[in-house]
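INFO  loader      accepted 1 record
INFO  loader      residues=196
INFO  predictor   begin
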Amino acid sequence: MTATIFIDTNVLLYAASNAPADQPKRIIARQLLAEPDIGFSAQVLQEFYAAAVTKQRLEMTHDEAVAVLKSLVAFPIWPNTRDLVLEAIEAKQRFQISYWDAAIITAAKQMGCQTVYSEDFDQTRQYDGIRLLNPFQAGLSESAPSILSSATLKPSASASWFHSQTPMRANGCETTPRFLLPANDVRTSAGLRTSA
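INFO  predictor   done
INFO  writer      dumping tokens
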């Protein structure tokens, strides 16, 4: 279970947000989720759910938040383990950052990621060789993936499922996340279409 790009909670929240004010960031976040080789951690999923159902400005229901989480079945999810916790505590002390930020960096490192997309970190630092990039920051450096340096924000060819609504395939099943579909495309009451 590896990835090269780690997605932090705020990117996932923007991708799923129904708030009109979040729409510019929603476009960028959804295009990031269309990139190949991305991963998340269990912590990101936990933080996503907690924020999605408590922050009213996101305009998300419990069912919508759960549908988003279920739609991530195709992506690697790094588990919370004792080793992660202990390494994150060490990183917290070494980098003088919050434990929760250290746990994100540690999960990304353990997963083999080279880049973390988040708007929460100091973008001028590297942590254990991991580059942190704010995908919503104007003038993102040329070292970022082409999706972010392009003025038109076109996804990679390998992410065609994102725009064509072709289902992702994972564990022998096809899934189409409802939050990636147009608002008028209702697949099921649970928010997912699945077929074996």
